[in-house]
UniProtKB/TrEMBL annotation:
InterPro entries: Inositol_monoP_metal-BS, Inositol_monophosphatase-like, Inositol_monophosphatase_CS. It is an enzyme of class 3 (hydrolase). This is inositol-phosphate phosphatase. It comes from Rossellomorea aquimaris. Transmembrane segments: none annotated. GO terms for biological process: inositol metabolic process; phosphatidylinositol phosphate biosynthetic process; signal transduction. Its EC number is 3.1.3.25. Keywords: Hydrolase, Magnesium, Metal-binding. Mg(2+) 2 binds at D90. Its cofactor is Mg(2+). The lineage of its organism: Bacteria, Bacillati, Bacillota, Bacilli, Bacillales.
């Protein structure tokens, strides 16, 4: 039997230690490489942080499985037992260029069910946490449930790229949404954008393509405060698949899906 209280304490200790190492790294020169294209960055800190977590988890919980962006995790095809889904630094471009607006994201699944979610904004020292069935918190302050908001009052996070060129949704669909909402924002870290929807700083967030480590923790968090999490067709996400993502406050999510994205739900 898993002792969830002890596990939660361990994750918090490890996140604090990893966060401190990342903050200390600002004083040293980073080794920056590119992955799939010249804007897809990875640094030695992304790798060292994931390695740090996988070592801790394997030493403490040898029967748990790990999915990590940088490849230090395990090879598996289905969620069974306890699975840790880790993005050691979400928002690497911000980490490299701005030294802010990036986060450590850890989602812990029990079978197929999201159980615990942690998003740690390292520079602002904000830990967003969700415990399935027991609420979501920001630095131990409970987050209230999300209330509906009209499109005209909503702040929606999206990347400008999706409005200018985009194979998945025609820009003529997104342009009216951008025009009608109160404002748009783009923070460059999916995990932070998801934590901001959960905490009400944003009303919705949509994006064309994310990986499981980008949304594993945020999905648990948003659902815990009554927000809606789907892909851009309004379908549920598979925690192990890459997909588009659309999250938002109740009511607002449905209105944008049916009136703007023209999807049925
Ligand atoms: C990226 C960030 C970004 C999102 C990209 C992700 P990374 O994660 O979350 O906001 O638009 O799709 O890949 O590479 O910085 O961990
Ligand atoms: Ca990421
Ligand atoms: Ca990352």
């Amino acid at each position: 039997m898993t002792n969830w209280t002890e596990l939660d304490q361990n994750v918090r200790t490890w996140i604090q230690e990893a966060g401190e190492r990342i903050r200390q790294s600002f004083k040293t020169e980073l080794n920056i490489k590119t992955k799939s294209n010249r804007n897809d960055l990875v640094t030695d800190m992304d790798e060292a942080t994931e390695h740090f977590f996988t070592e801790k988890i394997r030493n403490t919980y040898p029967d748990h499985q790990i999915l990590g962006e940088e490849g230090y995790g395990d090879d598996f095809k289905e969620l069974s037992g306890i699975t840790w889904i880790i993005d050691p630094i979400d928002g690497t471009m911000n980490f490299v260029h701005q030294q802010r607006n990036f986060a450590i994201s850890i989602g812990i699944y029990d079978g197929e069910e999201g159980k615990l979610g942690y998003i740690y904004d390292v520079v602002h020292d904000e830990l967003y946490f969700a415990n399935k069935g027991h609420g979501a918190y920001m630095n131990d302050v409970k987050l209230p449930g999300l209330e509906p908001v009209p499109v005209q009052d909503a702040i929606v996070a999206l990347n400008a790229l999706w409005v200018t060129e985009n194979k998945r949704i025609d820009r003529t669909i997104l342009a009216p949404l951008v025009k009608d909402v109160r404002g748009t924002r783009s923070y460059g870290s999916a995990a932070i954008e998801l934590a901001y929807v959960a905490s009400g700083r944003l009303d919705a967030y949509l994006t064309m393509r994310l990986a499981p480590w980008d949304f594993a923790a945020g999905k648990i968090m948003i659902e815990e405060v009554g927000g809606i999490v789907t892909d851009l067709n309004g379908d549920p996400l598979n925690p192990l698949n890459k997909s588009s993502l659309f999250v938002g406050k109740p009511g607002l999510h449905q209105t944008i899906l049916t009136d703007y994205l023209k999807r049925k739900i």
